[in-house]
Design brief:
single chain, alpha/beta, four-stranded parallel sheet, 14 helices, 15 strands, 16% strand, elongated
Length: 437
């Protein structure tokens, strides 16, 4: 049993010790705030304090874990063996305060401080410490922990470390379930009028072919997705937008027969979750209403969610999800670029810095969304695939969980090839080979 000494146990230190030692390393440990007990302990032990008082393994405490305020810390950055670290200290056995550094990134501390928000009120990637210091594209917290593990096992050869395996979760946002199918007569008529005005006669032809059941809806890619993911044995989750119609929330009405049939079909074969509308960030009553709509259709409790537009405001968004009964959220990622927003590819529990408490909301960080490449970075599918594979390889190195986001409308078949469907197919084929190794 590893013993960790620190002068005062706080909720912050409890959170990060549990994440590192229990969830990622699997090392049995206990905590002591008694110096005499620590000094007399004969087995593996770590001193976490602001001064060394023995020859035992020592990590110099920066102070952020014993603090109870939200303030702009001076974040010093250095490199150790080519790896960037936060809160460096040359006088300890690790070279930096891994606990404070990991807590700072996992808690999303910087999002509680003033920042220049984007057009949707989100924290932009360019504002992040990770982007500014060029470590956004690596799971830096996981790499720190991996380095820490090597040092620990060298110092304490008998210490047990659990074996972790690379995993992948394919997630799909159903912002608009169908391009033509399920629309009312008046919506079809209005859309046709717009197409006439734009001389989009191919759209007119396709719309009416779909509505008289002579052609499949181009965004109806669900059989393809279910068959492909199940054949390859990959885990998938579909998130449905059931908000009231608005400028940014445009899915079919939740009462629509085609919509209900689709949800029930997918629920029978894989997992589903709610995709809270953009407006639900402003009105918690909408979040509850949308979740209840999905529960009404499925006759089951909904416990998974992903925010539309990946809109998160700390800590309110996660507090609202908790009050609505959500247990798992898959929203933590940047819309405008890929990468590891919290520096990790492992799930972790949301730490509420306003309330200073560990919550029961489990966060599953995402690192890839096809819309980032297509709309923000302007990459072609083939170019995006190369970047996706790099990120998969990074997650594989640390034995984490690779989570991607795709949208059904971008997975429509392409006559010319080199489509986003091809990119998706190549990605999951690569994932399959990596999960088997």
């Amino acid at each position: 049993m590893l013993l960790i000494y620190l002068p005062h146990l706080t909720e912050r230190s409890t959170f990060i010790f549990r994440q590192i030692f229990e969830f990622q390393l699997g090392i049995p440990y206990s905590i002591s705030c008694n110096k005499e007990e620590f000094l007399s302990y004969k087995n593996e032990k770590i001193c976490y304090d602001n001064e060394r008082f023995s020859d035992d393994f020592f990590i110099n405490a920066n102070g952020i874990l014993s603090d109870h305020s939200l303030k702009g810390w001076e974040i010093l950055i250095d490199e150790i063996n080519g790896r960037k670290v936060l809160f460096p200290n040359k006088n300890d056995d690790l070279g930096f305060d891994i606990f404070s550094a990991s807590f700072y990134l996992l808690s999303r501390y910087e999002e509680y401080l003033p920042f220049n928000e984007d057009a949707f009120g989100r924290f932009p990637a360019v504002e992040s410490l990770a982007f500014k210091n060029e470590f956004l594209n690596i799971p830096i917290v996981d790499l720190w922990i991996q380095d820490f593990e090597k040092i620990l096992t060298k110092r304490f050869p008998k210490i047990p470390i659990k074996k972790i395996s690379f995993q992948a979760i394919l997630t799909y946002d159903i912002d608009v379930a169908f391009k033509y199918k399920g629309r009312s007569f008046w919506r079809n008529t209005g859309a046709t009028s717009k197409d006439i005005f734009k001389f989009s006669f191919l759209n007119i032809k396709k719309r009416w072919q779909v509505n008289v059941q002579k052609a499949d809806d181009p965004w109806d890619v669900y059989d393809y997705l279910l068959t492909t993911t199940q054949t390859l044995g990959l885990h998938s989750i579909f998130f449905f937008l059931l908000g009231n119609k608005g400028v940014h929330d445009r899915n079919l009405d939740f009462k629509n027969k085609a919509m209900k049939t689709l949800i029930l079909k997918i629920k029978q074969q894989t997992q589903i979750g709610i995709h809270p509308s953009l407006m639900s960030n402003k009105e918690i009553s909408l979040l509850n209403l949308e979740k209840e709509r999905l529960e009404l259709i499925t006759s089951e409790k909904v416990t998974k969610s992903r925010q539309h537009y990946l809109k998160i405001k700390f800590p309110e968004t996660y507090q609202n999800l908790l009050s609505a009964g959500i247990k798992e959220d898959y929203s933590l990622g940047y819309s405008e670029m890929p990468g590891f927003k919290a520096g990790t590819s492992f799930p972790f529990f949301f730490y509420d810095l306003k309330k200073e408490e560990i919550t029961e909301l489990k966060i599953f960080p995402v690192c890839v969304m096809e819309a980032s490449f297509k709309y923000y970075l302007g990459l072609k599918p083939g170019e995006a695939l190369k970047e996706i594979i790099k990120l998969i390889d990074e997650v594989k190195k640390v034995g984490g969980t690779f989570i991607s986001i795709w949208h059904n409308d971008n997975l429509a078949e392409s006559i010319n090839g080199n489509s986003w469907r091809d990119c998706h197919n190549n990605m999951i084929q690569y994932l399959k080979t990596q999960t088997q190794n």
